[in-house]
Every structure is written in C-alpha cells, then in structure tokens.
Amino acid sequence: MTAVTRNRLYGFGLAATVLALDLWVKGLMLGPLALRSQPGGQIEILPFFNFTWTRNFGVSLGMLQATSAEMRWGLVAMTGLIALVVLVWMLRERKLWDILPLAFVLGGALGNIRDRTVYGYVIDYADLHFGEWRPFMIFNIADAAISIGVVIILARAIFLREKPAHTSAETAPETN
Predict the structure, then answer these.
(1) Residue 166 has what DSSP assignment?
(2) 35 secondary structure, DSSP code
(3) Is the terminal CB of the chain with fewer CB neighbours within 10 Å at N or C?
(4) Helices and strands of the chain, counted as H and E runs
(5) 3-state DSSP call for residue 139?
(6) 46 forms bridges with which residues in the sheet?
(7) Could you give the 3-state DSSP secondary structure of residue 66?
(8) How far are the Cα atoms of 16, 103, 122, 123 from residue 141, in angstroms, in the given order?
(9) pLDDT in tens, 131-160
(10) pTM of the prediction?
(11) Closest by CA position to 107, among listed 141, 56, 73
(12) Nearest to residue 160, comparing CAs of 76, 101, 81, 108?
C-alpha cells in the first residue's frame, strides 16, 4: 500500500468516525436522554454547558432557513454538492495533513445531511455558555467537526503556503 493510499484511508476513517460519533450522540439525545421531552428541552451538564434541544432548519448561523419542503431538499442538494466537492478535493490531496481537515468537514457534512434528510432539520444540542453569554450558537458534533476542519484548512492556507519559485526574469534587475 502506498503512503498516499494509506493517507486517504486515514481520511475516510476519520470522516466515518466523525459521522458515527455524531449519529451516536444524536441518538442519545433522541433516545435514552429524551432531550425533546425534558422540561424546557434542556439538561444541565456543567455550569457552563447544557444539552439544549434545538431544531436547526437553516445552515451555518441559521442562514438559509428551509421553510418549505422544496427549500429543505434544496439545502440537502446544496450541502450534498458541497460534500461531493470536499470528497473530490480530499481524493486529490496526497499529504495526510491536507486530507485530515477535509475529512472533518466531510464527516460533519454527512451527519447534518442525514439529519436534514430524515427529520427535515438538523438536531443541535451542545450549548456552551458563560452566564447569558454564548460564544457560539447551539451546535452538534458535526458542526464542531466542520468548524475545526475549516479552521485548519484556513490556517494551513495562510501560514503554510508554498512560496512560488522565482524565475531568473523575475529576480533580474530592470534595465532601461
């Protein structure tokens, strides 16, 4: 097995792990914890972290709210297309540290696509707060994985860019 194949398999393994973990925790929210039926749809875990039942009909930050069946399936198609682009991008990469952040995004996208397909909305439950201040909207593992992957991709693009090779014409002094 080549190093590139191994790296891609690690990427697919990470995407599958993110998806499985996301589905498992959402299953806990719907099943044993019965978060939907808790008073106020909330369970305090720590003074600064609750499980809070939320149905997200939109995408990031509540944008593009799906208020009809057509919009719901439009969001499924749009996020499916994005997941497909991420998959193709992942297959084009060769280095592990370029593949892993894409795997986070892919696994998270698949988890949220599955929710929107099955329920018509994405199940969000992770409520980090400090008093009344919430640094994030209520989210889920899939959202966190997507955010982590995007931050890593952006950080690598900004700080680890390869410098273009200079040709002799670019470095030669101008003559008039």
Answers:
(1) P
(2) G
(3) C
(4) 5, 3
(5) strand
(6) 49
(7) coil
(8) 13, 14, 11, 10
(9) 888 888 889 999 999 999 999 999 998 887
(10) 0.83
(11) 141
(12) 101
